[in-house]
Amino acid sequence: MTRTLDKFYPGIAGKARETKRKNIHFWAKHKREKIQGECVTESGSKQRRTRDLGVATVLPQPAEEEIVVWIKSLRDDGVPVSAFMLQTKCVEVAAAYGVSTDYFKASWSFRWGFMRRHALTLRRPTRQGQQSPPDADAKAVAFRNKVLDLMREHKVDRVFNADQTAVFFEYLPKHTVSDRGTKTVWVRCGGKDKERVTVMLLGDSLGNKFTPFIIAKSRPPKDETKAEANRQERQGFGVHVWKEVTALQARHDAVIYGNQRGWWNGALSVAFLHHHFGGRPRDSSPVLLLWDDFSAHWTEEVSACARDLNVVLVPVPPGCTSVCQPADISWNRPLKLRLRTQWIENLQTQLSQPREHSEKFKLQPPTRKGVVEWAVSAWAALSQATIMSGFSFIFRNSTTTAPSEMEGEAAANAIASSVVVAELEHHDQIDVNVGEVSAVDDVIERFLTKAVEGITAADEIAAVVSGVSDSN
Questions:
Q1: Any residues with CB less than 8 A from the CB of 401 and at least 6 apart, and which?
Q2: Residues 106, 110, 112, 117: is their CA dihedral positive or negative?
Q3: Which among 64, 107, 152, 355 is most buried, taking Cβ atoms within 10 Å?
Q4: pLDDT, tens only, 414-467
Q5: Radius of gyration (C-alpha) of the chain in whole angstroms
Q6: 58-62, 120-124, 304-308, 419-423 — which one is most confidently predicted on average?
Q7: For residue 153, what is the enclosing H or E element?
Q8: Domain 61-117 coded CATH 1.10.10.60
Q9: What is the mean pLDDT of residues 110-117?
């Protein structure tokens, strides 16, 4: 008995150990044959407890239907329903129907069976925002018409979009391979999983990418005179750090600023506008810049600067950036994917370094220099088609000049190709090292032909995938 308790219940003592000893004696006396019979089967040997079929506490059908109606009403309003919320609601409904909550706990096995019976499942959100998808799509149509009207009014043939995003020092995977049944799944980090820099990206509807602004954290000196000198002369950095920043700017196509929070502000918005649009002739055409409603984009100083530089700031509808802002539509996801890839490559490089057999692995987080290099290279790797595809919701089926210096059918083909390539890139179906392609096997050309005929890229891609599946 002592060996049995030590093996199956290690670490318990006192009254708890005595209770387990009595349980084992009871099982041996009254349930030995049943337990031995269950252990013969593979599934039975893995169970911690057994119960005869049909013996369970369940909810009546009307109770389950009431829970389903509750779930669907919340989801129609966009409210998330977590596993805990479902469990709480099931217990509440059970009590209302007279089912004893002493026995019915809405365990995970009940919830799993309940969701299977009613064609429900737990899913990760694929889109979030303050607006429901139909409302957001309606605002996207109105915003598209507004942008097209502004393009006609100002006689411009392209649109710009700028958006800031966080680039973290560590991109720990959300899942890891581990032993089944392990309660604590621990992963090692470098201690900088919350550290980040802010990157402001700028692109236009021609597919051009422009120099990114990178904002890093910089501790200001206590002396206000030195702090002001840092802001005016060294973009927010001290004398020694400024030498490193200068070298990074010279080596990479980036502008690097520093402040205490490492986040965007109104002064940086002014500097950003001057850097990208300040060198144009006074009589040049206006610039249409789509910018979200972040407060630092719309201060009086920023608005005055934009007017002086002949930049027309177009506010993206609040809560609709997922369908109205090109960066959120097609830039940010592949950018973050490349950043995660670079972090994994950095981890693999560290793991490949030789170390003593007894020496434990210690993950070294990237330096500020490394993060800047990651951000610049990830931005540079985005294709022209990816940048253009973010603007496709504006120019699709539009009579306004397409976002290209080409005209007519060539411009329409350029937009169609950008959408197709972006979709393929989104699904990791683009080989960047493919080299030359025979005109006979030019899949993109075939997609463009279908696009002119009114067949969408998604339909054509589906047809190609279906054909591959049939051939296999």
A1: 151, 157, 407, 411
A2: negative
A3: 64
A4: 544 554 555 555 555 555 444 444 444 445 555 555 544 555 545 555 554 455
A5: 30
A6: 304-308
A7: helix 133-154
A8: yes
A9: 91
Strands of the 196-204 sheet, one edge to the other:
255-259, 213-217, 196-204, 160-168, 287-291, 311-315
- CA atoms 385, 391, 394, 399: torsion sign: negative
**Segments in 316-408 forming alpha helices (H):** 321-324, 326, 332-351, 368-381, 384-389, 392-395
Model pLDDT, residue 148: 93
Tell me whether residue 190 is exposed, middle or buried, using C-beta atoms within 10 angstroms of its C-beta: 0 to 12, 13 to 18, 19 or more. Answer: middle
What are the φ/ψ torsions at residue 437 (nearest 5 degrees)? -120, 135
Q: Which residues contact 421 (CB under 8 A, 6 or more apart)?
A: 383, 385, 386, 389, 430, 444
Q: Containing H/E element for 24?
A: helix 15-30
Domain(s) labelled CATH 3.30.420.10 in the chain stretch across 133-174+190-352+361-381
Q: Are 89 and 70 in contact (CB under 8 A)?
A: yes
Give residue 385's identity as a one-letter amino acid code: A
Domain with CATH 1.10.10.60 in the chain: 61-117
Could you tell me whether strands 287-291 and 311-315 are parallel, antiparallel, or unpaired per DSSP bridges?
parallel
**Local confidence band at 167 (pLDDT 50, 70, 90 cut-offs):** very high
Cβ atoms of 162 and 289 closer than 8 Å: yes
Tokens standing for 91?
């217990």
Which architecture does CATH list for 133-174+190-352+361-381? 2-Layer Sandwich (3.30)
Answer for the pair 385, 423: CB distance below 8 angstroms, yes or no: no
At 452 the pLDDT is 47
Query: Phi and psi for 450 in degrees, rounded to 5?
Result: -65, -35
Structural tokens at position 441: 């096997």
> Could you give phi then psi for residue 50, rounded to 5 degrees?
-125, 155
Exposed e or buried b per residue across 15-53, where buried means at least 16 C-beta atoms within 10 angstroms of its C-beta: eeeeebeeeeeeeeeeeeeeeeebeeeeeeeeeeeeeee
Q: How many residues does the chain have?
A: 472
Q: What is the pLDDT of residues 6-23, one digit of tens each?
A: 888 888 888 888 998 898
